[in-house]
Amino acid sequence: MMKEHLYRWRNKQLREHTAVIDGEIAPTMVLKNATYLNVYLKKWLTGHIWIYDDRIVYVGDLLPKKTKRTEIVDCTNQYLVPGYIEAHAHPFQLYNPHSLAEYASKTGTTTLVNDNLMLLLLLRKKKAFSLLDDMQSLPVSMFWWARFDSQSALRDEEEFLNDEDVLDWLEHEAVIQGGELTNWPEILHEDDRGLYWMQETKRMRKVVEGHFPGASEKTLTKMKLLGTDGDHESINAEEVYNRVKLGYYAGLRYSSIRPDLPALLEGLKEYDGSFFDYLFYTTDGSTPSFHEQGVIDCCIDIAIKAGVPIEDAYSMATINPAQYFSLGNRLGSIAPGRVAHINFLEAKDKPTPTAVLAKGEWINFDGYAFQNRTPNIQWKKYGLGKMKIDWSFRSDDLFISSPLGMDMVNDVIMKPYPVKSESQTKQLPTDHDIAYVMLVDREGNWRISSFLKGFTTEIGGLVSSYSNTGDIILIGKNKDDMHKAFERMKELGGAIVVVQDGEIIYELPLPLQGVMTDLSMDELMEKEKELKELLINNGYQFNDPIYTLLFLSSTHLPYIRITPKGLMDVKKKEILFPSVMR
């Protein structure tokens, strides 16, 4: 079958599509007697759906005259809805874009809009664009956004966030938005470069995604004036309502770190007005095991159970995000001209499908359309091989000294505390929850160390090449264990490794540049649960340690962070204790 050519259909294909309507060419598939949701009328209609290759070409009362080699499917007693859209994915949370897309498609999420941050950090632009293009051959639709900041304080940010590179990303056809604006305070006040990138995004008729947790109405208004179109950071129903009132699209989040959706929907019952058309769902980069309950299908289920009208609950997963991204002519509905992403349900109120069509192909639950296309994806082709670390720790590298430590308020928020008498011995006592913490350049050029309160009472050494910046994190009570964990991570070419009393008690290899695994989602979920249980049993006080590792160096969260430039006061953007060259 001739599939969509990268980002649009060619003239020859378009002529074939209309020839199907004229009866000159047989459709490749007909879905007979289909009760389907028309998202424009917000009604369930009955008709026949013709598909040619990867595109819906007809929806109505007629059946085709030619059906030679046409797959005919009787849809009696089924309910058909458009494929679901994950409008804000971070496809690098230990999993990779391919494994996340494969897993998501099995429960009906057939379009993902993805963060490009790790591609910026890890790949050259040419390799990254090759990956974007090749992913169009997958049965799902994969789109991306273009970051305007690193979400940390990098020593060499200009190397990958400059006018030429950002504009090249924005111009790529797979990139459909700019943002998310984790650096919005700078843009609001003095960052004219970021503002320029926003305006270029608008010039290209693409949307700008905000990141405005707790923002006031005045701030939201000013960011709207500067060009922002949507925001997914509402933490209560009032914030959702205020965003819609000001003309924003509002993403409702149900994620491992912020499972807000039920409370948001409950709170919205207090507000009059018809605002569902401007809402969409996101799981916002949840850690792997959170997805055991599904992806966007579980969000729809929550909405239906919260009393959202069924038609609106599905529209929030389909046509709403499609319209937000100006992709309504291709995605988000069962209508002529749209990509053939269709979910088959046993009941209107059961959004997890019993069968899925993606680009006109059946996604069966053994991973058919993925495994047959790319059974062994060649990650090295894109520069995503094992980390090559050709340096080792010196004796003075594990000398850890800092006047300030980081005290965990929750999984991701940390406040400073004064360090009084932390010893420089190899072993910290296990009668308290203070551990050594270090961030080290993956090239071995610099390091910054401090103390971390709340992560563990027992763990000797944990090393993670998975982090927001792609640098290496060391945490632990025992410097020998930390060193051994580092050496094992180095042998594996990237990993999360835990060492206790000189013994390796856990390892998760991350062979894709030390940030992602090549395991399936099902295998990864079990490994993540094992790590979480291990850490909680050894004094981790919260629920999502993967997010702690990711956001240790993220400067979009309060109050203190350990970054490549040093220990940073996030609010003041001041380096309190600089990193040192090795």
UniProtKB/TrEMBL annotation:
<dbReference type="InterPro" id="IPR032466">
    <property type="entry name" value="Metal_Hydrolase"/>
</dbReference>
<dbReference type="Pfam" id="PF01979">
    <property type="entry name" value="Amidohydro_1"/>
</dbReference>
<comment type="similarity">
    <text>Belongs to the metallo-dependent hydrolases superfamily. Adenine deaminase family.</text>
</comment>
<keyword id="KW-0378">Hydrolase</keyword>
<dbReference type="Pfam" id="PF13382">
    <property type="entry name" value="Adenine_deam_C"/>
</dbReference>
<dbReference type="InterPro" id="IPR006680">
    <property type="entry name" value="Amidohydro-rel"/>
</dbReference>
<dbReference type="InterPro" id="IPR026912">
    <property type="entry name" value="Adenine_deam_C"/>
</dbReference>
<feature type="domain" description="Adenine deaminase C-terminal">
    <location>
        <begin position="420"/>
        <end position="573"/>
    </location>
</feature>
<protein>
    <recommendedName>
        <fullName>adenine deaminase</fullName>
        <ecNumber>3.5.4.2</ecNumber>
    </recommendedName>
</protein>
<feature type="domain" description="Amidohydrolase-related">
    <location>
        <begin position="79"/>
        <end position="362"/>
    </location>
</feature>
<dbReference type="InterPro" id="IPR011059">
    <property type="entry name" value="Metal-dep_hydrolase_composite"/>
</dbReference>
